[in-house]
Amino acid sequence: MTGVERDAEIVVVGLGSPIMCDDAVGLRVSEAIEAMGLEGVDCCQEAVGGLDILPVIHGYRFAIIVDAIQTGDYGPGTVMLFTERDFDDVIAHAASHDVNLPTAIRIGRQMDPDIMPEEVRFVAIEVQDIKTVTETMTPEVEESVDSASRAVLHIMEELTGSAPRRRTS
User: pLDDT tens digit string along 34-92?
Assistant: First the structure.
């Protein structure tokens, strides 16, 4: 690999705002994974979107992005798993400002394929309220943090072929 080198193989990126009710769920899931102290796994909590995600995931073999989603099609707290291919129909061929995450990842693969993750996966949690300014999530979304964390662990095992292990000190 050229360019960015990382010690860990996997990055779990929780996206959201800690003060916008359910929008914090991605951050909370990333924090829960971080608290497990897993070997070969870095976790970060970010309030970025579009092309700003690229430096966060550069240099990792795999990236798992956890974020709130509001489709209105599922009950709050529903955990959904996506691959990059699931977003092929939402990738825009537009200017680099204000691009969605799948478009940013596609641009990253075109610009710097050697430092992009082999695979990027997404864990999305259906949310109810992302407009109220509060550090408290709705009960259904709060309860989904554990199942979303288990989904992240499942993806890690699927990507690497083995269950993640805790760091030994």
Answer: 999 999 999 999 998 888 999 999 999 999 999 999 999 999 999 999 998 887 765 55
The tokens for 50 are: 């579009």
Q: Amino acid identity of 168?
A: T
In 3D space, the residue among 103, 105, 119, 106 whose CA is nearest the CA of residue 54 turns out to be: 105
74-86: buried (b, 16+ CB within 10 Å) or exposed (e) per residue? Answer: eebbbbbbeebee
| Cα(27)–Cα(5) distance, integer angstroms | 24
Confidence at residue 91, expressed as pLDDT on a 0 to 100 scale: 56
Top CATH class, 10-160: alpha beta
The pTM of the full predicted model, rounded to 2 decimals, is 0.92
What CA–CA distance (Å, rounded) separates 128 from 67? 13
Cα torsion 17, 77, 150, 48 to 10°: value is: -20
Is residue 42 within 8 A of residue 33, CB to CB? The reply is no
Q: Quote the CA–CA distance of 169 and 156 in Å, as a whole number.
A: 22
Residue in 121, 106, 150, 123 with CA at minimum distance from that of residue 61: 121
Cα distance between the two ends of the chain: 28
Structural domain boundaries in the chain: 10-160
Higher pLDDT, residue 25 or 7:
25
